Amino acid sequence: MGSMRSYDHQAIEKKWRQVWEDQKIDEVDLAKVANGFYCLDMFPYPSGEGLHVGHWRGYILSDYFARYYRLQGKTVLHPMGFDSFGLPAENAAIKKKAHPKKFTDEAIPVFIDQLKATGAMYDWSKTISTADPSYYRWTQWLFLQFFKHGLAEKRHSWVNWCPKDKTVLANEQVINGCCERCGSKVTKKKLAQWYLKITDFATELLDGLETLDWPENVKSLQKNWIGRSEGANVVFHSDQISLKVFTTRVDTLFGVTALVLAPEHPDLTTVTTAEYKNSVLSYVEKSKEKSELDRQRGADLAKTGVFTGSYALHPLTSKQIPIWVADYVLPDYGSGVVMLVPAHDQRDYDFARSHSLPVVPVIEPEFIETSELGKVREKLPFTERNGIVAIVKHWTEDKYLGLKWKNVPWGTWITGGIETGQSAEAAARTEILEEVGYKNLRLVKKVGTLISKFYHPPKQQNRLLHGQVLYFELENDERIPISKLEAAIHEPIWLSPDEILPFLTASAHRWAWQELQDQPALYEGHGTLINSGMYDGLTTVEAAKKIAADLERRGSGGPIVNYRLRDWLVSRQRYWGAPIPIVYDPDGTAHAVRDEHLPILLPTDAEFMPGGESPIKLSKEFQQRAEKLYGKGWHFETDTLDTFVDSSWYYLRFLTPNNNDQAFDPALVAKWLPVDLYIGGIEHAILHLLYSRFVYRFLIKYGYLNNDNPEPFQQLFNIGMITLHGAKMSKSKGNIVSPNELVEHYGTDALRGYELFLGPMENSLDWNPRGINGVHRFLIRVFQLSQEIDDKPDPSQEALFDGYLDRIDAMMKDFRLNTIISEAMILVNSLSKEPVSKEVFSRFIVTLSPAFPFLAEELWSILGNKESIFKSKWPKFFGATPTTKKIKILLDQRFIGEIDRSGEMSEEEIIKLVQTSPELSQKIDGKTILRSIYKPGELLNLITRGSHNR
Question: How far from 573 is each of 97, 191, 358, 611, 641, CA to CA, in Å?
Answer without folding.
Answer: 19, 11, 46, 9, 9
